[in-house]
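User: Predict the complex.
Assistant: Input components as received:
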Amino acid sequence: MKTNVKVLDCTIRDGGLVNNWDFDVDFVRDLYDSLNAAGVDYMEIGYKNSPKLVDTEGVGPWRFCEDDFIREVIPEKKNTKLSAIVDIGRVEVDDILPCEESSIDLIRVACYLKDIDKAIDLVEAFNKLGYETSINIMAVSNSLGLGLNEALKKVNESPVDMAYIVDSYGSLYNKDIQYLIETFKKYAPNKKLGIHTHNNLQMAFSNTIFSYEQGVEFLDTSIFGMGRGAGNCPTELILGYLNSTKYDVRPILRVIENRLLPLREKLEWGYNTAYAITGLFNEHPRSAIAIRKSNAKNNFLGFYDKLSSVETHEDIK
Amino acid sequence: MKTNVKVLDCTIRDGGLVNNWDFDVDFVRDLYDSLNAAGVDYMEIGYKNSPKLVDTEGVGPWRFCEDDFIREVIPEKKNTKLSAIVDIGRVEVDDILPCEESSIDLIRVACYLKDIDKAIDLVEAFNKLGYETSINIMAVSNSLGLGLNEALKKVNESPVDMAYIVDSYGSLYNKDIQYLIETFKKYAPNKKLGIHTHNNLQMAFSNTIFSYEQGVEFLDTSIFGMGRGAGNCPTELILGYLNSTKYDVRPILRVIENRLLPLREKLEWGYNTAYAITGLFNEHPRSAIAIRKSNAKNNFLGFYDKLSSVETHEDIK
């Protein structure tokens, strides 16, 4: 195994997009203990957005990750570090405690390309507070070209630790990932790289191990692939692939049976033909998620024809 | 799209391993019409083993593909060619009609490495009868090294049209496929290459498009991934990837909704953690298939520990 690789499990964070962060405390605590026993490097425990800035109605606490609450859930941190992600415009920087007073080690800033300056402002603030930081450029499949290069130059000059390639639409193949890695390496050569994939085209695991082989050091995964729409690269497959004494897949297999399978019986995530269709069209998965919740959930041909006739992509929201 | 690529859909043949070839005639006819409308090059309609040599109890007709029956099912062949596969020791060569009297265009011979001479004997017989032929070397992940090189030299000297890499255990990654393609190209340079994958490690589609990019011309797929255990590379994803005017994914989407989804409600196939475990151990999926039919179907940790403690692989049957 390459020595610098880090596995970051985002089951609670990306999975929270499936169930509105409605995980109970036992579930999250068990996941933390299992990830720690498995040797996983980071657990992303949720979003650290501000309840003042987003709708809190019916939303679980992992959307906000308030420090007192997180400390209650995981009173004793072990080897696995904790991360949380923030969205541009939804985080109140003044409410973020210094890292030494928080259980969170890493704050990741998710942004679209157009918001790169705002992302860097946030990174600078979190960096001063003592956190590790990353910038996660979402929907990167729609962000190619000059704009990306310029953004990456700014990222390279910022204090951020990692720059993440995020295949939000699950529409990328290995060759696209290769192009992105080359671009990130060229314009942000001082930064560690990370990869976050979605499984719309059954490429999440393949794209992640491809990235690993190309020197990407931070690999996002989720247990049983739990994540929005087609879900993410399964933690269990990555640990099997890395096949290192540093990691042990066994605690993950246990938690799949005890925690993820019962949840999967109630909630849908993972590869489905509807998600493949948005992947093929390089579209946000929201239309597929909506179809899957409707009476037309299996009308794949109708859905394909509808997307074919859309002349312009939806705005990125 | 590379001009010589051929897509071979094996839904009925590999899917027959899931339901004992219990497809009704309407289903198979609809699949043929859909594959033809989609521009798929070949449909593998089943095995052409002899009812004299295998157990016929409770087995559907697609295990035998008798010529009169196939002509009844598909009275009028269209552009999509038909193929059937045979197993060593289970086919009666004397009962095979000349190609011009049969609806079958291509006969594929499945063999383990140890039976390569028998496979070539069959190929010679079928070739004389006017069929296109292929040799499909199964369980290739357990067949590396000198024995494979020698076998491929014999294949190269035979009249066979295609040599297939078959990842029976779904245990191969792109880098393994790359090694195999290089080996096949080196020792059987005169033959077209084919690829048949399984999805144990969520690599079926990735390995198939990787092979395509490396010049492999025959791509095995199945609709909705229907096939033994973790299933195969989905036809719909390949047609989307090739994105050529030669192919149209729409008829496949229709048949998924109308035919495959109702079947999937009754039968299990496709990626599952149990199949991932046999993939990681480079084992035949039969133990995972058995687990999935037992009360311990979700005891993934127990299954993993059991396979860990097996000191020698099961014999290949």
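The radius of gyration of chain B is 18 Å.
Let me know if you want any component modeled separately.
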